[in-house]
Write a structure and sequence with these properties.
alpha/beta; Alpha-Beta Plaits; two-stranded antiparallel sheet; elongated
Length: 288
């Protein structure tokens, strides 16, 4: 089963939930944690990792042979991302805008465009005890996170449980990481900002036809409008984590909740059991 852990905004405790859930399940069979928050991966901070493999991620970007080019402008016309500009006697390529779709080289009537790899990041994989792990790192200055996310997800072991830590928000990297999940946990906080971004996140996963439930973190602050919204939309609140100074101290020291306060492991195992029941009842099956 693939479970993604997302949030409409940053700072809600998504990493806390993802790492604690993965560690709680490691004695229940094969478990893998994939950190797809490639712009700022930090799951590794909370795990004693041994990295066994590292590979670069590249996308194909166009290279124009102006000796063959007739400056017809077809490449610029078909580029949906404005990564090529054609002038009467010159062609400009903007690699930062290129999405590597290949349309320009495929449709060039003079076959004047070839493709060359442009490195945009790296994917590392390894383990922490019996927990398998992989994460991606987007190179500084690069904007194309989805290709790295796809390569991280290729590391998924479909014979066990896969936990995907998703970047915050509702943008393209979030959609790329969440899609194909059996279930999505949405981590939020009981504040007006938390509610606003939770609504956006719920609409996103609904469009992807993925069932979701909420983990309410820092309960005890704000108001009850998040709970009211969940009741109205019939979204289950699967777990409530209180606002607790000890939890904050553990997090600041890079210690997961289930390691710092072991009794929380039962709560996360209960969270997983609720998710499994929902997935089975929905009839979507599991990826095993």
């Amino acid at each position: 089963m693939i479970i993604s852990v997302a949030s409409g905004k940053g700072g809600t405790g998504k990493t806390l939930v993802a790492t604690s859930l993965a560690l709680s399940l490691k004695d229940r069979g094969k478990v893998q944690l994939l950190d797809c928050d490639v712009e700022e991966p930090n799951d590794h901070v909370f795990l004693k990792l041994v990295i066994t493999r590292s590979e670069s991620v590249s996308i194909p970007v166009p290279r124009v042979d102006e000796a063959k080019c007739t400056y017809c402008g077809k490449c610029a016309e078909v580029c949906a991302y404005n990564a090529i500009a054609v002038f009467p006697k010159h062609v400009l390529v903007f690699p930062q805008l290129c999405h590597g779709c290949g349309a320009c080289s495929y449709l060039c009537p003079e076959k004047a465009i070839s493709e060359e790899g442009k490195e945009i990041g790296v994917v590392e994989s390894g383990y922490s005890d019996s927990l398998k792990f992989a994460h991606g790192r987007l190179a500084i200055g690069e904007a194309m996170a989805p290709p790295i996310i796809r390569q991280v997800k290729e590391q998924a072991n479909n014979e066990g449980t896969v936990i995907i830590d998703v970047s915050p928000g509702t943008s393209c990297p979030v959609v790329e990481a969440v899609k194909d999940s059996d279930f999505c946990i949405l981590v939020t906080e009981p504040t007006p900002f938390g509610l606003n971004d939770l609504v956006l996140a719920v609409e996103t996963v609904k469009q992807l036809n993925i069932p979701c439930g909420v983990v309410l973190n820092r309960a005890g602050v704000g108001d009850g409008k998040v709970e009211e919204y969940c009741r109205k939309e019939k979204i289950p609140i699967l777990l409530t984590i209180p606002l607790d100074i000890e939890i904050a101290r553990l997090y600041a020291r890079g210690i997961t909740l289930v390691e710092g306060i072991p009794q929380w492991q039962e709560s996360f195992l209960g969270l997983f059991d609720k998710i499994r029941e929902i997935v089975i009842e929905r009839g979507s099956g599991t990826k095993r």
